[in-house]
């Protein structure tokens, strides 16, 4: 089903794509849902900016609108979008902003989520511990899982306030 009388040259290109994606996917089984690149980019932005709970809330309440978390994880792994703790990638920001002709940008960190301590087998490090700073910048990959004794020390330390 397509929206009658509205073309993709209008100002509402994304909205039209979004509605068309939902209506098209509702006629298919879940394992045959399809998403164009604009929807995938929106899904990644929503996941990054809103977090997993927000993403799942929208995805589950508007069936067929957004890819599953599994598909989203695959998109992230197949691109250079891997989100790592304490990694800012200022060079990529600068390149992206230059392409968009932006001179100023605002960035912030949202730490309202409950931070679980978990092990990332790909990078051999633990995630969720507060990262120490070096001259105001978080130290990347600080918590390498080199020994059980070191892990015990991290969990028993009271300096991180949990």
Question: Nutshell version of this structure?
Answer:
With 162 residues, the chain is mainly α. It has five helices and four strands; from the N terminus they run ααααββββα.
Describe the structure.
By secondary structure, this protein is mainly alpha-helical. The chain has 2 domains: 1-83, no CATH class; 86-162, no CATH class. It is built from 5 helices and 4 strands; from the N terminus they run H-H-H-H-E-E-E-E-H. Strands 1-2 form a two-stranded antiparallel sheet. It has a two-stranded antiparallel ribbon with strand order 3-4. Strand 3 (133-134) and strand 4 form a beta hairpin.
Keywords:
162 residues; 2 domains; 5 helices; mainly alpha; two-stranded antiparallel ribbon; 4 strands
